[in-house]
Design a protein that fits this description.
There is one protein chain. This protein has 14 helices and 28 strands. By secondary structure, the protein is an alpha+beta fold. It folds into three domains: about 130 residues, no CATH class; about 120 residues, Ubiquitin-like (UB roll); about 90 residues, no CATH class. It has a four-stranded antiparallel sheet with strand order 22-28-27-23, covered by helices on one side. Strands 2-1-6 form a three-stranded mixed sheet, with helices on one face. Strands 4-3-11 form a three-stranded mixed sheet. The longest helix is centred in the first third of the chain and has 26 residues. The radius of gyration is 55 Å and the shape is rod-shaped.
């Protein structure tokens, strides 16, 4: 029998020729096998939680995800009953987690520990290492805020503000101190972050600083307030001067907060009122020029010069005093404005009052009529004349001197008016008996 054997096909170039399909099929089959093996591995890795895994300190290794959630919920029952200790300097609160709105979401805590995944990194982790995961803490914000707000009323403390007052010429000072307030949002976050650990949660407090820090307070006390009342203050106003002890001017001083420091303020009205207790002539009215006949001398009228007055310019007093109180000289020169007299010396001198124009004894003392009074041109002097017996004598002399006299019988007054161009001097000389009434002026030229 003849037998035929197959021989490899030859390529046109004389080499062997092979078909590609068997290689491709083998490659596909190999890939499918590997894929199936990987899927099986993923299924195996995800069918239960890896051994040694803990959630919130509860061992859940080897359990399904549902079993793990049930175990976590059961094992944390005691944790939910254990009071949380919230502490702060000088205070401590013990309260059950539920009162604060704290709870553990068991399903969320074990989520992803035993679920199917194709992620090779997660598959590798499940096969090679255990997981230690904290529980997922849920906080009821409204419940927590209500409790924390109640605690805040106990914890919060307003800062002690710096205060410096002057009492009886001495300094009384209150040093500033920090306050505090409970930071509710931050304390909420601390509760979530710390529970269910060892149960100790420090409350988060915020420092409330006083308006004036201690260093600024001490500076104001040492360099301003204490020197301000360390001794008397010399006050000069116009032509007057006096020394004021601290107990006199201190009530007018204030240390007021400006920004982050204390500054010295002076109450001008109160300071001037205090100064007048020691120096009544803090201010002086101007004195008009006049004419007087010196007592005990020959009856010759002499011009009394006008004296300017002064008024304190209140707008500048506070700053002047404030600077003086911390200066070594301790002298306050009050700002003043000059007040001119209404009748200057030159005007009175021009009247040339030197002649006795008329004179007569007065049988009864003209009570109420001054010893000497100047009547300017065009002006009058009204005299309350209760002693009617003296009115005739005074009126006669005044009329003889060229003055006009008007009598008001109902009011018992006499008005002596000077119609001339020069002033006159009315004089009652009570050094003799009976008293004599005279009118002095400038006699008409010959």
């Amino acid at each position: 029998m003849l037998m035929r054997t197959a021989s490899p096909a030859t390529a046109p170039d004389g080499g062997l020729r092979t078909t590609g399909w068997p290689v491709f099929v083998r490659l596909v089959l190999s890939t499918l096998v590997l894929a199936l093996l990987y899927l099986a591995l993923c299924w195996y890795a995800g069918r239960s939680i890896p051994p040694g895994t803990e959630v919130a300190g509860v061992s859940v290794g080897g359990l399904t995800q549902e079993q793990a959630a049930a175990r976590v919920a059961d094992q944390l029952t005691q944790v939910r009953r254990t009071p949380v200790r919230v502490s702060w300097p000088g205070g401590l609160k013990r309260v059950e987690p539920a009162v604060l709105g704290l709870s553990v979401d068991a399903p969320a805590s074990v989520a992803g520990l035993a679920e199917f995944t194709l992620d090779p990194r997660r598959v590798w982790d499940r096969l090679t290492q255990a997981t230690h995961r904290p529980g997922v803490v849920v906080l009821d914000t409204a419940t927590a805020d209500a409790v924390l707000a109640a605690w805040a009323r106990e914890i919060d403390r307003a800062p002690v503000q710096a205060a410096i007052v002057f009492s009886g010429g001495t300094v009384q000072a209150t040093a500033p101190q920090e306050g505090r307030t409970l930071d509710v949002p931050a304390t909420r976050e601390a509760l979530v972050a710390s529970w269910p650990g060892d149960g100790d949660v420090p409350a988060v407090l915020r420092v409330v600083a006083p308006a004036v820090p201690p260093v600024r307070y001490q500076e104001a006390l040492d360099t301003v307030a204490t020197p301000a009342v360390a001794g008397p203050l010399t006050v000069r106003s116009g032509g007057a001067s006096a020394v004021l002890p601290p107990e006199v001017f201190a009530p007018a001083l204030r240390m007021q907060t400006q920004g982050d420091t204390l500054v010295l303020q002076v109450d001008t009205a109160q300071f001037l009122a205090a100064a007048r207790q020691v120096m009544p002539n803090v201010e002086a009215a101007p004195v008009d020029a006049s004419v007087r006949i010196p007592a005990g001398q020959a009856p010759t009228p002499a011009v009394q010069p006008a004296v300017p007055g002064w008024r304190v310019q209140t707008a500048g007093v506070a700053e002047v005093v404030r600077v003086a109180l911390v200066a070594s000289e301790r002298t306050a020169l009050l700002p003043v404005s000059s007040l001119a007299p209404a009748v200057p010396t030159e005007q009175v001198a021009a009247w040339e009052i030197r002649d006795r124009l008329a004179e007569s004894p007065v049988p009864v003392d003209p009570v109420g009529l001054p010893d000497q009074v100047v009547v300017a041109p065009g002006q009058g002097y009204t005299w309350s004349a209760p002693a009617h017996e003296s009115i005739e004598a005074v009126s006669s002399v005044a009329t003889a001197a060229g003055l006009s006299v008007t009598r008001d019988l109902g009011a018992d007054t006499v008005t002596i008016t000077n119609p001339g161009a020069r002033g006159v001097l009315l004089q009652v000389d009570r050094s003799v008996v009976p008293a004599r009434f005279a009118v002095w002026g400038r006699a008409a030229a010959d």
